[in-house]
């Protein structure tokens, strides 16, 4: 990946991985798709390769990302889903041309046509968001316990009590802070 851009945070759920293209939402926000080309990179990494992206398409993607985050937050908190977020997700879901295909390993993959557009890839992400927010998968939506992050993530742990969007980043940061605070208390 090109130097100068933060690494992507990749997960196993497409919709919440897409919302993780903006991290530290309640702190110093980190935009992981700052340019149209970077969105092309993210889509390729997630099996949704497109040839190009315009600034307008990047804005559509960001609008979808924020709508998914808003809907996932509502679902995680058990509150009403924002009507504007639901509208954007539904609109993007129906605007693309993509087909679900079965792999030889028995997995579902999305196939975009040879002349795929960003809108086609966004429709796949939106359809995934519908599935996750509607509760059609085994797991639950949750919000990262980090006060600066608050990322939406899909908890598939056995107990469904996971606290962090990513143990290697937010969880580790919180554990280090707790350890440092305990060390300071001991030295007083």
Provide the fold topology.
Elements: H1 14-19, E1 22-23, E2 30-31, H2 36-45, H3 55-77, H4 83-95, E3 98-102, E4 108-112, H5 118-133, E5 140-143, E6 152-155, H6 167-187
Antiparallel strand pairs: 1-2, 3-4, 5-6
Helix pairs in contact: 3-4, 3-5, 4-5
Question: What can be said about this structure in brief?
Answer:
The protein is mainly α. It contains six helices and six strands. The protein has helices at residues 14-19, 36-45, 55-77, 83-95, 118-133, 167-187; strands at residues 22-23, 30-31, 98-102, 108-112, 140-143, 152-155.
Polypeptide structure, described:
- Helix content is 47%, strand content 12%.
- With 188 residues, it is mostly helical.
- Strand 1 (22-23) and strand 2 form a beta hairpin.
Defining traits:
188 residues; mainly alpha; two-stranded antiparallel ribbon; 6 helices
Low-confidence stretches: none
Distance between the termini: 46 Å
Give the fraction of residues assigned to helices: 40-55%
Beta fraction of the residues? 5-15%
């Amino acid at each position: 990946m090109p130097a100068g851009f933060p690494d992507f945070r990749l997960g196993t759920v497409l919709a919440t991985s897409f919302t993780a293209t903006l991290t530290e939402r309640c702190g110093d926000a980190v935009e992981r798709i700052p340019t149209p080309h970077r969105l092309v990179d993210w889509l390729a990494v997630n099996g949704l390769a497109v040839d190009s992206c315009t600034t307008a398409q990047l804005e559509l993607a960001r609008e979808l990302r924020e709508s998914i985050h808003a809907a996932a937050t509502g679902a995680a908190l058990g509150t009403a889903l924002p009507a504007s977020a639901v509208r954007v997700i539904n609109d993007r879901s129906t605007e693309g041309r993509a087909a679900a295909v079965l792999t030889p390993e028995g997995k579902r993959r999305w196939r975009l046509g040879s002349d795929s557009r960003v809108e086609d890839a966004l429709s796949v992400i939106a359809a995934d968001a519908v599935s996750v927010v509607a509760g059609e998968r085994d797991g639950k939506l949750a919000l990262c316990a980090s006060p600066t992050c608050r990322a939406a993530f899909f908890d598939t742990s056995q107990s469904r009590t996971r606290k962090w969007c990513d143990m290697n980043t937010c969880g580790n940061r919180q554990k280090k802070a707790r350890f440092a605070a305990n060390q300071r208390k001991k030295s007083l």
